[in-house]
Amino acid sequence: MNTLFLPELREMLADANRAELEEFCDALNAGRTAEFMEGLDNEEIWQVLQYAPPDRRAEIFGYFEHERQVEMLASHPVEQAAELVDEISSDDRVDLLQEIDQPRVEQILQLLPAEDRRDIQRLQSYKGETAGALMTTEVAMLAENLTVREALDELGRQASELETIYYLYVVDENNQLRGIVSTRQLVSRLNRPSLTLGEMMESDVISVLVTDDQEHVAEKVERFNLLAIPVVDSGRQLLGIITHDDVIDVVREELEEDAQRIAAVEPLEQDFLRIALMSLSYKRGIWLIILFFAALLTAFALRHYDQELETYAWLVAFIPLIISAGGNSGSQSATLVITAMTSGDVKLTDWPQVLRREAIVSLILGGFLASIGYAFAIFLAPSAFDALVIPFTLLSVIVCGCLCGAALPIMFKRIGWDPAMMSNPFVAGIVDILGIVIYINIARMLLG
């Protein structure tokens, strides 16, 4: 929070100093203007925004936290809220309106132009986390028979309504996507003003379907290094575009969800400090209960081997070591495989190579830790031969942990589930049970 201008802003508001407030709203970058206003309460921010022109007001408003934006739209005069919503980009205003009470939304919609109202309702109809829910309908669409000069003139007429003009989309009379021209291409052809868009466009356009999942959209934008990607229906009719800033939000959201799933927590719909405590407890409790029963299986496994543990009491001291070695190695493998699959480095067809690499790495790690374990086991075991139980178990458990941690996320992906659901605690719970079984059976073979 930057408090540099707070006293001056409050003084200008108290004096209703229109000239200075208008200058403040207009003089700086919109992001910096919002930063200087963060220390104000919502009522004060709203008052300051009224001194900015409508388009500038929406630009500054967009830099405040999403929750503050929702609170301000929900609590201030509906006429002012509608005027602001009318200037916000189509995808952003839909996201905001979805979090406001329906009666208030209806009041705002009634004050919007019919075209904007229909646009909002159309975007609200798309399923969440799809390209349709993510796109903006503010897109530069030009006819292919326009010349360079005519295209520039038309672009100038459309510019104030567009979110971005990185790319110009060439369409036919039915709005079917025919090609794409970058603004750089257009400007570079100014020396040939009679050239048409149809002659200079690229017809092989990378696009996504309106029903595509947002993760698929992000993968395409990253793979082809795009600043924006067009969204079409099954008939190739251009519906909108998804810009790179929206893709960044998707990537951040997906990474947060994956990180939470890896930690065995259901993804949070709200910020950690804002989500209701009961909801937070529920999302954490689901997996804790599952893991609790998994841990009970470990207890039952130990109970099953009571006789062996009574006969060889010194084995009990190494149980935490065995369990942690297997669980930690499995968690490492699961995390590496999940992140590699998320980034696209590992595909389902790569599973033989993944398992082969994990088998080799697990033997290296297991051999190293087994050597250390044997060095300590000699001092606790009745004899050097008896102490061999520990290195053999460590090697076996680490190999088992690594292979389970690598294989289980791939199996989840194969059956259509999110591989991040195969969380670290879940892998550790499985390997704990296997570790006990392996430990006691190796002890039986060597000591029995």
From TrEMBL:
The keyword Magnesium applies. It is found in: Cell membrane; Membrane. It is a multi-pass membrane protein. The keyword Transport applies. PROSITE patterns: CBS. Gene3D superfamilies: CBS-domain, MgtE N-terminal domain-like, SLC41 divalent cation transporters, integral membrane domain. The chain crosses the membrane at residues 285-305, 311-338, 359-381, 387-412, 424-442. One of its GO terms (molecular function) is magnesium ion transmembrane transporter activity. Residues 135-197, 201-257 form the CBS domain. Its main location: membrane. Keywords: CBS domain, Cell membrane, Magnesium, Membrane, Metal-binding, Transmembrane, Transmembrane helix, Transport. GO terms for cellular component: plasma membrane. Homodimer. Acts as a magnesium transporter. Belongs to the SLC41A transporter family. This is Magnesium transporter MgtE. It comes from Rubripirellula obstinata. The lineage of its organism: Bacteria, Pseudomonadati, Planctomycetota, Planctomycetia, Pirellulales.
